[in-house]
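Z., the sequence and structure:
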Amino acid sequence: MTASAHPPTALPGAQKPAPPNLDEAEVERFRRMASEWWDGKGKFRPLHQLAPARLTFVRDELVGHFGLTARGLKPLNGLRVLDVGCGGGLVSEPLARMGASVVGIDPGGENVEAARAHVEGQTGAGGLDLTYRVGMVEDLAAEGVQFDAVVSLEVVEHVPEVGAFVASCAALVRPGGALVLSTINRNLKSYALAIVAAEYVLGWLPRGTHQWERFVTPEELARFVSAAGLASPTFKGLSYDPLKDTWSLSDDTDVNYLAFAGKV
């Protein structure tokens, strides 16, 4: 793991940090589970199952947006990427292995330590351009840095003020760059599947992981993204196949979905 050879672009006139936009109880919940981030059969099993589909979406959208070559093991080579709410590094590390220069940021120190420990224990990790830091997206926005792409997966539904969070993420995207988000839709179907089934019936997630009122519809997210100065986002759904026990990209955004938006 090395320091970035391509540091984030600094903007003139750094501003004062915005007020913290986080729920301390949410942060504490993930801190308590920090040692389990890379246990594919533990409390983060759903994220491990979602990983192939989510990473395929991120890779393909970034490759297409920036006109990169999709072939080879490092299709994101040359891109500077910020992973907001990186947790234990389940997204940051694979993106770095795809060739991106990645900064992962998270408010939970235990999560960051788990991410660092995992990458340091991996063969060939010395060649990754990957840096982790403890902090908030507002901290980076105040520093006036920008990235080619900002990625924040399964974070939106855990912040109190979604519009402010999206705006902070968008401020870190350079002109011509891109923002990638994923979250959960808010409707009766998502309540039944993402909370009742996932947390109480099947036990995929610890009870209380999600609050239904914080789920965000694609229409709401599109308004937040547009208000933050980005183009109208494109959406893709994530669908679960119970027979194969796998997740795949689909056109069904009723529950889990991803969003991609470029910045002019």
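The beta strands are 9-10, 80-84, 101-106, 130-134, 145-153, 173-184, 234-241, 246-250, 256-262. The first helix runs from residue 24 to 32.

Let me know what you think.
H.
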